Amino acid sequence: MDESYQDYINRVARLTLPTACSMQLQTIQHSPKFVEGKPVSFPGYSAITPPMEEDNLNQDFYRQVETIQQQLSQQLETDLFIPLPASSFHFTLADLIWDESYRQAIAANAEFDRVLQQEVAASFQQYQESLSDKKPLTWQLWGVMARPRAIMACLVPKDRESYESVIQLRRYLYQNSGLVGLGIEQQYDITAHITLGYFDKIPPSLNRDRLCIVLSQINDRLLESELPVFTVKEAQLRKFDNMVDYHRQPEWATVKFGV
């Protein structure tokens, strides 16, 4: 389902253009994942990189992302933007299950969590054994983009191998019959990103043109400098309770790159 390397580069490059920004901002809306600026229950599982607070390898990268987030917070209208705590920043490699689908799954199957953890471990192990080139994957910060309920920093792979490795990991997960039997399926192509924050209250008088200018200026400054590099050295199964807290047990599955 995921697109080719070149198609991905072309699509993400377009997402940060002013014309795309202007269109995206026409449909923004309040995120139900937050109420009065506080995260609400939104449980599930994903395969992600370690969150910033545990990722010593990418601290310089995350500091630059945090600077962008602060610029947005300072320039956007009050109550429009809910910035996420930088400690929770991460790169989602594969969404698995979330919110109502997860609630229904655990209500119907008391063994759901255990089986999911077991099947993800099997997929990770098969993928790890398939790796011939075990170097870390490198992605770059390309720019910021608006989505219907959030503002994100989007990433592009630094080389074809870094993209194909992530796509292959996703295939091992989404084509695992055990996970499919749990109701887990791929629902959309990957758009690699770090979520900076969510939209809160959208005032009727919101100046979307000005917001687009703010995002475009950030993107212009990024392209005038050396693009920050994000190194993917590990993928982990994580459970989340909301869009801030991502946790795991020591025995849960991981994939190591560069080992």
UniProtKB/TrEMBL annotation:
Alphabetical list of SUPFAM superfamilies matching this protein: LigT-like (SSF55144)
Protein name: DUF1868 domain-containing protein
Domain of life, source organism: Bacteria
Every DUF1868 domain range: 36-103
Classification via InterPro entries: 2H-PEstase_DUF1868, Cyclic_Pdiesterase
Organism this protein belongs to: Waterburya agarophytonicola KI4
